[in-house]
Amino acid sequence: MLTQYPRPQFQRQNWTNLNGEWNFLFDDDNKGEEEEWYKSFPDSQKILVPYSYETALSGINDQSHHKVLWYQNTFTADMKDKKRMLLHFEGVDFETKVWVNGIFAGSHKGGYAAFQIDVTRMLKEGDNNIALRVEDSLSCEQPRGKQRWKQDNFGCWYIQTTGIWKTVWLEEVPEFYLEKVKMTPDIDKGIIDITAKFSGTKREENTWLQVEISLEGKKICKKQAQVLNGHLHIPVNLIGEEEPWTLALWSPESPKLYDVKFSLLAGEEITDEVDSYFGMRKISIEGDKILLNNLPLYQRLILDQGYWEESHLTPPSEEAMIEDIELILKAGYNGLRKHQKVEDARFLYWCDRKGLLVWSEMASQYIFNDSSIQLFTKEWMEIVEQNYNHPSIITWTPFNESWGIEYIAVDTAQQQFTESIYHLTKSLDGMRPVIVNDGWEHTVSDIITLHDYVEGGEEFLSRYRDKDKILGNEIPFNLVRYAFAKGYSYKGQPVIISEYGGIALTNEKGWGYGEQVKSEDALLSRFDGITSAIKSLDYICGFCYTQLTDVQQEINGLYTMKREPKVNIEKISEINRR
């Protein structure tokens, strides 16, 4: 069960976790809204939130598709003081309508971005009723990632996730409160650049935001600025004049985090407090190399789809998230590519704490039209803003393998769409690289990434020794696709093999990439051959192995879905690190 504070990088003291047992109904006849179920909920079954009804942990475990769902619960509110109540949903797939005490409160489209609704005006002292209607079709217009849109699993698409699948919670804030902060590190100047946004009604003209920063319990600095309107910019210098070398940098080897307390002052009174943290790190590109904190970075990544047997996309517990991170580190990787999923904020928190690099990837849609463009763009912008402050995230990846942009190789409209997403992403976040179309058929991209499931090291070298042929679109690098879409060419960017391997054992039911191997030794031999070949080419500055764990019918993980190792992980680590 997920009981911890769901947003650890922006934490208040007064909150209520609404995870747990809710009333639940399928609305296959789509009559709930007409019959006003939000006012009087019919007899129903129980579901354990935040697990989707398709999972065993939900208590329902029905894997068939139901388009419309309803949830209902009650909670207690203390409304005596002047304060506001925010209802948070960390993830609901796909289209959500919310009623509180029979009054429509708000709605949201998008299964992967978090959202909140101010429900203050609907609340009453004591018990309050909340009802949700969720609609999640099998449409390929909406971002769905690895969720199937057919009756059964196929290829690398799995059981769908419908409805609530992340934490639901209630937060108490004052009338005028700190809504969000954007923290941008500049290690060259020793500055953390803070932009704050406020919401609500400001009653006191003499209102200030105080920022207190500490490191491992030692106070570093304190700064105040007057709040004159809804936004405030505060650059904070972290370098002392007497000890200019003391800036603590965040890296996989030493993931130092600064703690920060934001206090909103109305005169002398503290009216709002938020605890947060940040990491001082810089990700940059010089020529064909990627730098972390101005030093060359070789990325040893593993593809992680974030599925669990009993709970699918939802982590079964805090311990399960930490376990996955530990398994990745144990295998000698310094990062992960979170594939086709926007992970739980607490997972990213632990990556920040433990120094694990993250590529953040959008869930794909699979049709290109006006509707899919709008749905994708809106939700991707929400996600970039939502996860901006995490130091572990070093790369944004909006598209994968031309999914949803099937004809990008020649279609100028699809090419222009990816260019637009690239520039929108860079306008929100100018400090991270953007890989527009991971795998092949690149348009504009800060890093050129290639997917190749070649089965041997010598075969890999025979294709990739000649960098110019691969990156000059003279040959399809993986025998199927070219590196660039028509009209685009290599501009000297860094190159990463961002999918390879996918090795499966013959004694398992399911599939992997290429011919399945018969033994652990054979798996290690193939892994060693390809990985060593990739590392031997100087122009390649990293790799991403497929994958961390098996996922349903795809059985090419280093671990099973139960997180049992299939191979000697110490030997995997040795190969990765040498």
Automatic annotation (TrEMBL):
Keyword Hydrolase: yes
Domain Glycosyl hydrolases family 2 sugar binding per the UniProt entry, residue ranges: 17-140
Ranges for domain Glycoside hydrolase family 2 catalytic: 285-502
InterPro entries: Beta-gal/glucu_dom_sf, Galactose-bd-like_sf, GH, GH2_Domain-Containing, Glyco_hydro_2_cat, Glyco_hydro_2_N, Ig-like_fold, Ig-like_GH2
One MF term in the entry's GO annotations: hydrolase activity, hydrolyzing O-glycosyl compounds
Glycoside hydrolase family 2 immunoglobulin-like beta-sandwich domain: residues covered: 177-281
Homology family: Belongs to the glycosyl hydrolase 2 family.
Protein name: Beta-glucuronidase
Keyword annotations of the record: Glycosidase, Hydrolase
GO biological process terms on file: carbohydrate metabolic process
Gene3D superfamilies attached to this UniProt entry: Galactose-binding domain-like (2.60.120.260), Glycosidases (3.20.20.80), Immunoglobulins (2.60.40.10)
Entry keyword Ribosomal protein: no
Native organism: Anaerocolumna chitinilytica
